[in-house]
Amino acid sequence: MSKLFFSLLCLLATDVSCFQLAVSGGGLGTGLAGVRAHSQKSSRTHLHPSPWLCKLKYSSKTSPVETGNEEGLLSLGFINESDNYKEASRLYRRTIFTSEDWLTFRSTERLFSNLSTMFTSGIIRGLWVEVGVVTMTALLAYFSNAAILSGLVPEVPRDGSFMLALPTLPFQLSSPALALLLVFRTNTVYARWNEARGHWMRIEHSCSNIARQGMSYLEKEYREEHARRVIALAHVLQDHFRHEGDHEQKLRAKLTLLLGRRESERIMSSPVRPVQALADITRIVRRSQEIDGSTKARFDLHLDELTSAWVACDRLHKMPVGEEGGGGRRHTGRFLALWILLLPFALVKELGDSFLMVPVCSLVGVFFFGIEELGVQIEEPFSILPLENYVECIERNVRQLLLFDRRELSDPEIGEDTEPLN
């Protein structure tokens, strides 16, 4: 029996060596490096190159992909590489559809397009570590049992009475529970994403309404400042939920163009910038002498709704899905990992000595880990929501209102050549 365990260790070492060679010399490592180099220019500056295989390091708060709450755990360099790719690919998930995009979306060719782009999908490419571990486990199960059945392991019968295999009944009984956990968690995080999107729609709606009311009721000398403050608030809110690259310098430059250097530095030095930007808009309304109390109350209604939406987004940003009542993130992850990693030892009896067991396990791992990865990627929604589009819409609407006010056009009137309404 000791010889059997020694043989298994040799097989495992062979599998790990092959995996290291494939990662270090194959095209996958090159692709990840290219994505990381592009992301350093266009997205996040904290995506630094990380060590490759065979270089272990302790977790620390200085690592760009480590949280610091798992002190004492070892982190492999290729895991950092996979995390860097996932973070860099979030930049390309901020999709805005046009009419042509919806036509393509509804096209019958979507089935063939989805299949043809399966291995270029960002989600699947980000799972190469998990799928690689599943594949190595499947290879271990296959070669171990092949060695036993071929008589390469002495003192072990070759008639199949002894195999490294598990019964399939536990997997059949536990698969509905695993599916329920995955679906429940995915639905929970999709609800978070949809809630964050709804709050940003409220922010866009409230900013446009506040600007419209300011152009209609404020004194002439306050209108442009009011419009500039509303645009500045939109950019401050975007920066509050996004920390990409030189975001501080970009926000400071934008606020300087809108408000001037002194006001820009005042807002940038505020402990909570959205609160300061909201207070500045409130002060403009308070300084007005021409609007009555009821009009100021309507201003306050939209400012209250804007504040409520911002606070709700801040809550989503600071609080992930809880362990209890939110899908049990860690419990689901452990359940899924053990279920997938032990699956090859159950399929080895079903598929016999067929090598088909290895790609089947890899494909099952892709789909199951893909479902779990989808939930992880959208649990923090603000780095994949197109916040730039919301801010651009707010700025475009406010600038249009201000341009109309500057032209001092008369109130629009219906022309005499219109068709009568019956």
Number of helices: 16
Estimated helix fraction: 55-70%
Distance between the termini: 96 Å
User: How many strand segments?
Assistant: 2
C-alpha-based Rg, rounded: 29 Å
Mean pLDDT figure: 77
**Residue runs with pLDDT of under 50 for 5 or more positions:** 1-75
Q: Which word captures the global form?
A: elongated
What is the H/E string? Answer: HHEEHHHHHHHHHHHHHH
Q: How would you write the strand order of the largest sheet?
A: 1-2
Assign the structural class, choosing from mainly alpha, mainly beta, alpha/beta, alpha+beta, or little secondary structure: mainly alpha
In terms of DSSP E residues, the strand content is under 5%
Key features of this structure:
422 residues, mainly alpha, two-stranded antiparallel ribbon, 2 strands, disordered N terminus
Write the layout of secondary structure elements.
Blueprint: H1 2-25, H2 27-42, E1 56-58, E2 74-76, H3 77-89, H4 99-105, H5 110-116, H6 122-125, H7 128-149, H8 169-217, H9 220-241, H10 247-259, H11 261-268, H12 273-287, H13 293-318, H14 329-350, H15 357-379, H16 387-406
Antiparallel strand pairs: 1-2
Description:
With 422 residues, the chain is mostly helical. It is 69% helix and 1% strand. The chain contains 16 helices and 2 strands. A two-stranded antiparallel sheet has the order 1-2. It is elongated. It starts with a helix and ends in a 16-residue tail after the last helix. The relative contact order is 0.12.
Summarize the structure.
This protein is mainly α.
